[in-house]
Amino acid sequence: MNLGVAFHPGTSGNAVDRAVALGRQAAQAGIRSAWLGQLFDYDAIALAGTIAREVPDLTVGTSAVPIFGRHPLPVSSQAQTSQAAAHGRFRLGLALGTRHLTEGAFGLPFERPVARLREFLTALRPLLETGEADFHGELLTATTPYTAAVAGAEPPVPVLVAAMGPKALDVTGELADGTLPFLAGPRTLGEEIVPRLTAAAERAGRPAPHVVAAVLGVVTDDADAAREAAVEATALYDRIPSYQRVIEREGHTRAADLVVAGDEEHMAKALRSYFDAGATEVFVTKADLTGEDDRLRTWRFLGELATAQPPTSA
């Protein structure tokens, strides 16, 4: 199993030092990848590259950087710099973001998100692959009067998109390397996301896409406490239409109902269901729902599963 974890360095002490320490802890447990979200505190792309530089056994990625309020040129520079720091072990995860955060924080209208995604990816791909772009779209322009290539950023940075809606999946399959669905359970993966994404990639003549599923989960003896903690941790997603749709498809009414909480056998069975549905990689997030002891227990178990068989390409 290709297994990873997502974590946040916290709000006390030094965020970078803490993130590197968590990265080392994950690698020592046998975990193969670490993922960082993007809010308004640390820069996830820069922090991922720093972790990879310090922890050479770990692949790193962002899950995910919203495209509203950002431009392909600086994002390419950031991503290539982290790829060089990581010596090829960095993956760029992008997202559409939400209307609430986009309009509230940036003062930007959350309009035509799928069209913006298409233009963003169309401009970004040549920047990452050749260091050049000459794109003039309806929503953005990206040209390179000087080279945008970063020496040592090899191979070209893989791009994943946190896409779940049909139109966003079509664009992702056509222009990106894969997807990063969160709160999309096995049913949604197997019946909707994987078939739609794969069909779009085939139409575009692209390789089979990666499907990196983010799973809310913790190995614990107190599943009830984990579910209660998950209610607060995921309340935002209950108000976002795209997440509401996949939650309902899984037969639930709120995001917290999708938490995987139980013993090691329960976790292993749940993870296997995601791979059986077509995920090529899974990472577990919010493993600290019931405290540090359970987070460590979860990470140790994920490491055991990950090292039980040789890794596949990611």
UniProtKB/TrEMBL annotation:
Q: Which InterPro entries match?
A: F420-G6PD/mer, Lucif-like_OxRdtase_MSMEG_4879, Luciferase-like_dom, Luciferase-like_sf
Keywords from UniProt, A to Z, are: Oxidoreductase
Report if keyword DNA-binding is assigned.
no
EC top class, as a word: oxidoreductase
Pfam families attached here? Answer: Bac_luciferase
Q: Which CDD domains match?
A: Tetrahydromethanopterin_reductase
**Limits of the Luciferase-like domain:** 9-280
Query: What GO annotations for molecular function exist for this entry?
Result: oxidoreductase activity
- The record's EC number reads 1.-.-.-
Full protein name: TIGR03564 family F420-dependent LLM class oxidoreductase
Taxonomic path? Bacteria, Bacillati, Actinomycetota, Actinomycetes, Streptosporangiales
